[in-house]
């Protein structure tokens, strides 16, 4: 196969040795060109170029943000996406069942290519940008913003940094006193007083160490979107939802939580600007989002 190995050298788990070992392993049986990202959006342009050149696949060694950019460059083309975990959490790679070690994962990916194991999958989209696993609106986007302000610590602190950011955001960096936006789905679900919402294409939402955080178990590579909406951010609601997710039971609906599966369209209208993040990448504040399920738009190498 003719491959582009796309590397984010700044990602948490990527080292010079890891990159060299993986490039040599892939080049043993395939034609490999190496490219490194240098700025935000660069991976999208490199992936688009690979597709235009007719390459068989783009193999991404980086975090979920780099993977999202590459998927946006490849969606709608016949060039496949290959995933290698290079970030701090690697949600999508682990959702696919890959090991969290990039060198071991390379062996899994090579075996998949040898078997011709490739699936056409659907993605989500938000305001025209594709996402692989989720969009966070409100609280969790504010958490991601705090983490990105300390991005130099991610390589070393990882999950403790996210936990610290969650606590400090809840205490000081997010206005929990009022509804932030309203949501409507094609199924007829309406929530006018939301403070926090997740729209998921796959499950789990993330991992805490080795434990999956199962917010919406019905979400998956072959499903439409799932939606979880919090009306209020009370401590009891958050702790109860987190405990249920860690037990693998998903976030259960109640008076303060609304959940829906099999959703194809979500419209979000802000009561003023609100923050959002896509696949763990903070994208700022908006007043309107349109989220859609986009079926059969990306070829994925599956271990």
**Do you know the CATH topology of the largest domain?**
Tumour Suppressor Smad4
Rg computed from alpha carbons, rounded to a whole number of angstroms: 19 Å
For the terminal residues, how far apart are their CA atoms? 16 Å
Q: Strand tally, please?
A: 16
The overall number of domains is 2
Q: How would you classify the helix and strand content by structural class?
A: alpha+beta
Report the total helices: 9
CATH class of the largest domain: Mainly Beta
Helicity level: 25-40%
- CATH architectural arrangement of the largest domain: Sandwich
Strand count, sense and barrel status of the largest sheet are: 10 strands, antiparallel
Determine the mean pLDDT: 93
Strand portion: 35-45%
Q: Give the low-confidence spans.
A: none
> Overall 3D geometry?
globular
**SSE pattern:** EHEHEHEHHEEEHHHEEEEEEHEEE
């Amino acid at each position: 196969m003719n491959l582009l190995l796309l590397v984010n050298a700044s990602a948490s788990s990527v080292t010079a040795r890891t990159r060299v070992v993986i490039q040599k392993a892939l080049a043993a049986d395939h034609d490999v060109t190496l490219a490194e990202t240098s700025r935000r959006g660069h991976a999208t342009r490199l992936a688009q170029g690979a597709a235009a050149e007719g390459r068989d696949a783009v193999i991404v060694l980086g975090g979920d943000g780099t993977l999202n950019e590459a998927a946006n460059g490849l969606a709608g083309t016949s060039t496949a996406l290959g995933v290698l975990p290079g970030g701090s959490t690697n949600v999508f790679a682990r959702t696919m069942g890959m090991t969290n070690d990039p060198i071991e994962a390379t062996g899994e990916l090579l075996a998949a290519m040898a078997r011709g194991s490739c699936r056409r999958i659907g993605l989500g989209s938000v305001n025209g940008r594709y996402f692989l696993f989720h969009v966070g609106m409100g609280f969790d986007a504010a958490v991601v913003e705090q983490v990105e302000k300390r991005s130099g610590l991610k390589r070393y602190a990882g999950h403790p940094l996210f936990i610290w950011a969650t606590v400090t955001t809840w205490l000081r960096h997010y206005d929990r006193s009022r509804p932030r936006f309203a949501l409507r789905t094609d199924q007829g679900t309406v929530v006018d007083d939301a403070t926090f919402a997740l729209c998921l294409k796959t499950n789990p939402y993330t991992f805490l160490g080795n434990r999956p955080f199962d917010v919406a178990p019905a979400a998956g590579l072959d499903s439409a979107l799932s939606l979880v909406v919090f009306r209020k951010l009370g401590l009891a609601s958050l702790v109860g939802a987190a405990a249920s997710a860690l037990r693998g039971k998903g976030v259960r609906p109640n008076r303060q939580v609304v959940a829906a599966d099999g959703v194809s369209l979500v419209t979000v209208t802000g009561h003023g600007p609100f923050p959002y993040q896509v696949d763990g990448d903070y994208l700022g504040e908006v007043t309107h989002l349109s989220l859609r399920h986009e079926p059969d738009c990306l070829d994925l190498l599956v271990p």
